[in-house]
Amino acid sequence: MRIIRGITALQEMSSQGQSLASVVTIGNFDGVHLGHQTILGQLKRLANLNQVQSVAILFEPQPQEYFIRKGGAPARLTRFIEKVNLLDQQGVDCIVVLRFTPSFAQLSADEFVKQILVQGLRAKHVIVGDDFCFGRDRQGNFTSLVESGRQFGFRVENTATFSIQNKRVSSTWVRASLQHGNFQQASRLLGRDYGLSGRVIHGHKRGRTIGFPTANIPVRRTLSPLNGVYAVQIHRHNSNPLFGVANIGSRPTVDDDTRILLEVHIFDFNGDLYGQRVEVVFQHKIRAEQTFSDFEALKTQISIDCQAAKDFFAS
């Protein structure tokens, strides 16, 4: 899968006669849930029918994160790299990543169509929701995009909708399911179990001093859809899954750092995971994160958490 970063890269491709003929969809695709997968299937079918590239346009940061500052936007379900991998698994040929900056926010709807869809991507079809708005002050919408399509020779189609229990599957619904500890429902909406991935780093190694060594995985975010202690599976490349208990949060008993860290204590494991990329799949919520008076109280609670996780897996 090809990744193109920024309008400048698209313009350079166009000036060199290398612009893509494509079918395009535009969105955040946070979580790449079953609703997104339905749209991506629609994208692939049209791209194959027209014998052109399938292209997904993403924004970084996401528009909500740009306009709603100071942590007011919802926590992401997936980091950018996780999203890219999931889109690749869905068979998308190309991702265009547009940096959402003050100058980009001032781009008019007409300029967006001309520079990105027409000149940069030579769009044959564009697939967006009927509530889609774009351009400076949200001046562009589905109707205006249809009119632009007539002018420049591309067709505009509404996104396919995927529903469960007569309710449209959305990232908001997935996020709410996770926050309520309903992992079975989250899995139904995603089409897979929910997990976070990252590379194991060296920590302060305080866990091993109280008998519970942990694999530390930075999730590189200040907001997380999960917070607390969970029974988890740990997946490594070409290896059987491991089982353990994980804490995701800011570790209030240990330090005052507000960054989110994922710490996993793996049952019956003595190997070395440093530098390895792992995926931590969440199975069951044990409790919320809390502050303890001292390390002895923390040690006692971790022992209780481990037993709760083992009881869950045994059942």
Walk me through the topology.
Elements lengths: L1 E4 L1 H9 L6 E5 L7 H17 L2 E8 L2 H5 L12 H10 L4 E6 L2 H4 L3 H12 L2 E6 L4 E2 L5 E2 H11 L2 E4 L4 E2 L2 E2 L2 H9 L3 H8 L4 E5 L6 H4 L5 E4 L9 E8 L6 E8 L11 E6 L10 E11 L7 H20 L1
Parallel strand pairs: 1-4, 2-3, 2-5, 3-4, 5-8
Antiparallel strand pairs: 6-7, 9-10, 11-16, 12-15, 13-14, 13-16, 14-15
Structure characterization notes:
- The protein is α/β, with parallel strands linked by helices.
- It folds into two domains: 2-164, Rossmann fold; 193-314, Beta Barrel (Elongation Factor Tu (Ef-tu), domain 3).
- It has eleven helices and 16 strands.
- The strands form four sheets. Strands 1-4-3-2-5-8 form a six-stranded parallel sheet. Strands 11-16-13-14-15-12 form a six-stranded antiparallel sheet, covered by helices on one side. Strands 6-7 form a two-stranded antiparallel sheet.
- The radius of gyration is 22 Å and the shape is elongated.
- 33% of the residues are buried.
- The model has no long low-confidence stretch (mean pLDDT 91).
Structural class: alpha/beta
* Text of the CATH class of the largest domain: Alpha Beta
Task: Please give the domain count.
Answer: 2
**Strand order within the widest beta sheet:** 1-4-3-2-5-8
- Overall outline: elongated
Helix percentage: 25-40%
In the CATH hierarchy, the architecture of the largest domain is: 3-Layer(aba) Sandwich
SSE order, one letter for each helix or strand: EHEHEHHEHHEEEHEEEHHEHEEEEEH
Average pLDDT confidence is 91
Poorly predicted residue ranges = none
Task: Count the DSSP helices.
Answer: 11
List how many beta strands DSSP finds: 16
Report the CATH superfamily of the largest domain: HUPs
Per DSSP, what share of the residues sits in E-state strands of 2 or more residues?
A: 25-35%
- Rg on CA atoms, Å: 22 Å
